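Q: tRNA pseudouridine synthase B, please. Structure only.
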Amino acid sequence: MNDRKPTPPDGLVIVDKPSGFTSHDVVAKMRGIARTRRVGHAGTLDPMATGVLVLGVEKATKLLGHLALTEKEYLGTVRLGQNTVTDDAEGDITSSADASGITREAIDTGIAKLTGDIMQVPSKVSAIKIDGVRSYKRAREGEEFDIPARPVTVSSFTVYDVREAVAEDGTPVLDLIVSVVCSSGTYIRALARDLGADLGVGGHLTALRRTRVGPYKIDTARTLDQLQKELAIMPLAEAAAAAFPRWDVDTRRARLLTNGVRLEMPDTYAGAGPVAVFGPENRLLALVEAQKGKAKSLAVFG
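A: Structure for tRNA pseudouridine synthase B:
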């Protein structure tokens, strides 16, 4: 008798993460659903946030480090008039100020300063390492420290609605319904904090939903409950074709590539970053990068 558990197929699972779960919680849950330890994620999502979290199962874990460098899209609510220790609604309020006098023109001017290629200081309660120690750990222990600003790109930062509200402590505040398209590594709660600082009243993020990671959109995502009932895995070849430029090779070159030979790459792929190489019958062979005109392997599948 063969008691070995069937191996789940290689591929990506696009999860609609629930609020209150860490990205690691979702990975742990998926290990149980898919019955494998080989599960990873392509970029964390804060516990408060919901939406697209890309998981790799089995061989697809090799794609994840390369997927993390893609553009992301969010819908969120920024509250002007209050700062919090975490720059979002999870943390204690550290200051309040009447935001009712802030005009739409002032908001738009502040938004414009935070759009394009900018230098951003990540939130202190974040997973960034400072001298080998997570920033949030230093913050919880009451340390005084600075996080260096990092370059990020905010392709678009749009305000859809401005709503007047009154906070629990009686402060008149403004809630902005926003969408953001940005590079990986951008903190939306830091945008909320910096917008509030620029307007002189403070700001923090009260809600966040990630609607896209690279080519993977919220309409293809499944909740954990749905995945528990039916595990939907995007096949490895389909996932790679959606995320990377495609290079098709014949049988001879496919054999050479999988045997470690560095093939000459067409000039069209120079500077393109990771490229997915496909052999006959739509078989994903490898992820490569052009280096001096030749294919340098980043991950081999075939």
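A: Brief note, in case it's useful. The mean pLDDT is 90.
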